Structure formats: structure tokens, C-alpha cells
TrEMBL record:
Upper classification of the organism: Bacteria, Bacillati, Actinomycetota, Actinomycetes, Pseudonocardiales
A Pfam family the protein falls into: Peptidase_S8
Boundaries of every Peptidase S8/S53 domain copy: 79-334
Keywords tagged on the record: Cell membrane, Hydrolase, Membrane, Protease, Serine protease, Transmembrane, Transmembrane helix
Localization, UniProt: Cell membrane
Protein name: Type VII secretion-associated serine protease mycosin
Gene name as annotated: mycP
Metal-binding keyword on record: no
Organism, as annotated: Amycolatopsis mongoliensis
GO cellular component labels: plasma membrane
Transmembrane helix listed as a keyword: yes
Length: 422
């Protein structure tokens, strides 16, 4: 046809198409500006004095929460009834996503006088606590792994007199673990370490294990500085946690060794800060450990009958295992899996050994015929096949003729003659 509908179609749609493209570009630019404005900044690690409030907010769901999908478990448990001790720099109870009774008063063991620890100058402990138990809040897709768990802050480190970041000694960590146990914690997160074995620290870990309290510790960030064995992570009853990035690759700083139990997100992860409603981004095994502590809280809430040792074993057995001999020095038993940790049925926990189901044996191949009548039976069967086939054909023709020509004695005789001929 000579009307050229193609050119007419292009003429009519040219202006709307341009507007559409322009609108898409403008929308993309606006989205980019919004993203730039809302993307959380990296958590300062070398600041002097108290950490300033975060000024940006994570509006989407951070990658770590996307991968662990803790909300799939929340219809079963959100960690209610479980207290998680955060042995750290304190936790700010006024941070919006940690407010509403989520943070107890706690105890400051770094200062004399039994002061509470529900504030936080440095921000490290608040960031850790947010990964464990931050509650949902409008305007952000970030929330903690166990949002109904309680946080027991134990401050065992404070900012030094010159304003430098705090450094924990083994004695302070030991005192913090004991205080968390005495304060009613069923899970303890300690995102600190030392590379020197210490008797006080070892005794504190045994103190926790003897009272059925599970200790989760960061493996440390010294993989590129000699990769030493670290404590309390390497004590047998402790869950030692390393860090992976969003692709599942081990973080280059993450400690390795036979003592490693699990890995969890620890590169560019999101959490809250003190004195503000926004978010920070942090990297380190310090921030991988609380993901595991949060999952442990979910398990302890849903399986209160399990001991701390059984919870540790459950988290290891239900992890997303790497393709390696377990435990792997870089990944331990694998990446913690919240859904599997809560819902998997482990027969060993019940103390009942289930019956072993074995498959039925495959049928044996046919052997040689036995002497005797076997050959005669086989021959008779072979001869009967064509006879039965012929009989079936004749019966088919007989009944077909009866249907198409109506049944009469004459037709029966005719069919009979054909049978004799055939």
C-alpha cells in the first residue's frame, strides 16, 4: 500500500517519544541525586572524641539483609525473650531503631561505681547492637536480625583521655563477659580480640559455657598482618566469625584458621549510630559477628530446650557450606543461614536415632534357563503369542462387523469362513 503507515506512525509518536526519553533521563537523574543524598557514609574508625550522629539514611534493604532474609523466619520467631549481651563501648538506648525498651541499662565495667552502659560515645557498640536487634522503622529497609531480642550493653571500653579509639585488654573483655552472664544474657557478642592467650579471659569463657551462655566473637582483622590466632574467638566453646562481602568472597582482612566457625556479611554492612536516626556503613569481622549473634538469638527463642553447645552446632551444621573440606580455614562451616538454623530438623538433638531407610535392591538380570521343563514352557509361551494376537484380530473384526451391518446369523457364518481361511 502506498499510504506509508510507517512514516505517519513515526510522525505522530515523535514528540511523545522525545518527552518519554526526557522524562526517563530526568527521573534517573533525580533518583541518582536521591541515592547520593541517602547513601550512608562509612563509619569513622579514627575519630577523636565522640562519634557524631549519622546524617544519611539507608532507604532500601541493605545487601546483607537481602542475602540473609531474616524476615522469612519472623513468622516463627523474632528473638523475643532472649537477651543478647553486647560487650563493647556501650549502646545508645535513644537511637530510634533501638528505642522502646530494646536496650536495657546494662553495666559499665570500665569505670568504677557501677554506672549504666545505655549510652555510647564511640559508636562501635551501637552499630553492633543495631545489626542484632534494630527494629523496623518507616523510611528505611534496614532492621536487625532479631528485632524483638533485648540488648544488654556491657561497656568494657571507653574513649581514652586523648580522644583516641578505645582498645580492650583481655582483663576488660573477661570482666565484660562475666558481667553479661550475670546480667542474664543467653547470647554474648564480643567484637574484640587479643592475639595473646589469657587465663582470665579463658576462665570467663568457661564461666559462660558453664552457665549455658553462648559466646559469639569476631575472628579479627589481621589476616594480612601475620594471621595470628585470636582470643576469645579460638576458645572451643566460642563461635568465631569471619567476614565475607556481597559476592560471598572472604574479606581480605578476615582472620583465618582452624578455629573459625562461621562467616557472615562484614564488608560495607549497614547499621545505626548513636544520637541520631540515620545509618553508617562499616566493614570488619566486628560487624560480621553480630549477624551470627542475631541468628543465635532467633534459635534460642524458637528452641529454648537447646543448650548453648547445641545452638553452636546447629548454626554450623545448617550454614551454607563452601565446596571444601569442613571446617575450612577461611570460611569455617560456611555462611550463617537464618532460615535453616531455625527450621532444620536435626535428629541428633532429640537423642533419638531414626531408623535407617535403605533402598530396595535392583532386580537381578535374567539368568540362563534351568534344565527341565523351562525350555518347553518358554517355547509354549513363544508360540502362544501369535495365536493370541490372531484371535484378538478376529474378535475385533467380528464385533466391528456386528456394529456396522447389524447382527445376523448369515454374517456370523461369513466371518467364520474368513477365519478358517485366514
Amino acid at each position: 500500500m502506498s499510504e506509508k503507515p510507517g512514516r505517519g506512525y513515526r510522525r505522530r509518536s515523535a514528540v511523545p517519544a522525545c518527552l518519554l526519553v526526557a522524562g526517563m533521563v530526568w527521573t534517573t537523574l533525580l533518583a541518582g541525586v536521591a541515592t547520593a543524598q541517602q547513601a550512608p557514609a562509612p563509619l569513622p574508625t579514627e575519630q577523636k572524641g565522640c562519634l557524631q550522629p549519622p546524617t544519611s539514611t539507608e532507604t532500601g534493604v541493605p545487601w546483607a539483609q537481602q542475602q540473609l532474609t531474616p524476615e522469612r523466619v519472623w513468622p516463627l520467631t523474632k528473638g523475643a525473650g532472649v537477651t543478647v549481651g553486647v560487650v563493647d563501648t556501650g549502646v545508645d538506648a535513644k537511637t530510634p531503631q533501638l528505642s522502646g525498651g530494646r536496650v536495657q541499662r546494662g553495666l559499665d565495667v570500665a569505670s568504677p561505681g557501677g554506672k549504666p552502659a545505655d549510652d555510647d560515645c564511640f559508636g562501635h557498640g551501637t552499630f553492633v547492637a543495631g545489626i542484632i536487634a534494630a527494629g523496623p522503622r518507616p523510611g528505611t529497609g534496614f532492621s536487625g536480625i532479631a528485632p524483638e531480642a533485648k540488648i544488654l550493653p556491657i561497656r568494657c571500653a571507653t574513649v581514652t583521655q586523648d580522644g583516641a579509639p578505645p582498645a580492650l585488654t583481655a582483663v576488660e573483655m573477661a570482666n565484660g563477659i562475666r558481667a553479661a552472664v550475670d546480667g542474664g544474657a543467653r547470647v554474648i557478642n564480643i567484637s574484640a580480640s587479643t592475639d595473646a592467650p589469657d587465663q582470665d579471659l579463658a576462665d570467663a569463657v568457661r564461666y559462660a559455657a558453664g552457665r549455658d551462655v553462648l559466646v559469639v566473637a569476631s575472628a579479627a582483622n589481621s589476616a594480612q598482618q601475620g594471621d595470628p590466632v585470636t582470643y576469645p574467638a579460638s576458645y572451643p566453646s566460642v563461635i568465631a566469625v569471619g567476614a565475607v562481602d556481597s559476592t560471598g568472597k572472604k574479606a581480605d582482612f578476615s582472620q583465618t584458621g582452624k578455629f573459625l566457625s562461621l562467616v557472615a556479611p562484614g564488608v560495607g554492612v549497614t547499621s545505626v549510630g548513636p544520637r541520631g536516626a540515620g545509618h553508617w556503613l562499616g566493614s570488619g569481622t566486628s560487624y560480621a559477628a553480630p549477624f551470627v549473634a542475631g541468628v543465635a538469638a532467633l534459635v534460642r527463642a524458637y528452641h529454648p530446650e537447646l543448650t548453648a553447645e547445641q545452638v553452636k552446632r546447629r548454626l554450623e551444621l545448617t550454614a551454607d557450606h563452601p565446596a571444601a573440606t569442613l571446617p575450612d580455614p577461611g570460611f569455617g562451616w560456611g555462611t550463617v543461614n537464618a532460615m535453616a538454623a531455625v527450621t532444620t530438623v536435626l535428629p541428633a538433638e532429640s537423642g533419638v536415632t531414626l531408623p535407617v531407610v535403605t533402598a530396595e535392591p535392583a532386580p537381578l538380570p535374567p539368568g540362563k534357563p534351568a534344565p527341565g521343563n523351562g525350555s518347553l514352557v518358554a517355547l509354549s509361551a513363544a508360540l502362544s503369542v501369535p495365536v493370541l494376537a490372531l484371535l484378538g484380530l478376529l474378535l475385533y473384526k467380528l464385533f466391528r462387523g456386528a456394529r456396522t451391518r447389524r447382527w445376523t446369523p448369515a454374517r456370523v457364518a461369513e466371518v467364520t469362513r474368513r477365519s478358517e481361511v485366514g
